[in-house]
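DM from R.C. (forwarded with permission)

"hey, sorry to bug you on a friday — could you get me a structure for this? deadline for the figure draft is monday and I only need the backbone to look sensible"
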Amino acid sequence: MAKSLIGNHVRKLRFNHDEMTQQQLADRVGITRQTVVAIEKGNYSPSLELAFRIARVFGTSLEEVFYMEDEQ
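My reply, with the result:
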């Protein structure tokens, strides 16, 4: 499976929010810890709804959590 062209700052944001664990984030947005792992690694692009829920947890915009990587 190819990596997504959607990058993210989820890991950094978790660290900057009282070192939130993957499980804590998962519980707050209603997904599994394994899904958080896959998102952070770029192996899974969340739905738009889930992306908004993640951004809301961090009190930030979608663009500050997710970004498009340049194709090369």
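R.C.: lifesaver. The chain has a mean pLDDT of 93.
me: no worries. The helical segments are 10-16, 22-29, 33-41, 48-58, 62-65.
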